[in-house]
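Q: Here's a chain of 246 amino acids. Please give me its 3D structure as tokens.
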Amino acid sequence: RQYSTIGWLSIVVAVVVGVLVGVLGGHRGIEGITALGIGWRTAIAFIAGALCSAVSGFIGMIIAVKANARCANASQHSLKEAVNVALRGGAVPGFLIVALSLLGVTVIYFAYGGADTPGIAPHLIVGFGFGASFVALFAQLGGGIYTKAADMGADLVGKIEAGIPEDDPRNAAVIADLVGDNVGDCAGRGADLFESTAAENIGAMILGITIYAITGDVAWILFPLVVRAFGLIASMIGIFGVRIRG
């Protein structure tokens, strides 16, 4: 229900942003691109960013749910096995979300003419970051409110009224509390991670345009994407290199 509401709001906001950019912000156009062209490109980028951000949150939540059960089962065998499952269960959504962010920015950059007009395309994909931030904002707020409400409800019923320990399986409200942990800490955090990396990449690419205007070397614009890709690879190597003793 939350993602359905966010989806409809994203479409409305994308149209509004596209109109505002086309009518107010893009009054003079950019090297052959009309004000209307700037507007609809920004709107499409906004929707693409919102969609990818929502998918990132969904990925984080689904993998977390599956990893939770596997980690609990592994803890019955050994600490080493449980830590390995928990570590890699957390690493997988992190890698997928950062890779999706990198892929999304790269695809929309070249789709908007990055190969032919590298100095213009980064300005046209700013809407991608706005869309990602829009979904992440509501995912964090909605998930956080639900998480805290469920947590307080479970504590009030369990500790104060029934006098049973925290997270006791006899308390039915604990289920809502655990669901809230997944919704707020996993889904919201996944969308937040996506929008953070997307905004960083786009912002750094726009800064690279300044050096590109002086040197004419497009590598300065693509440099943030390359660095992010190498960082992703290095993180994967680091995760696989972790060994638990005992």
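Q: Can you summarize the key feature?
A: The mean pLDDT is 83.
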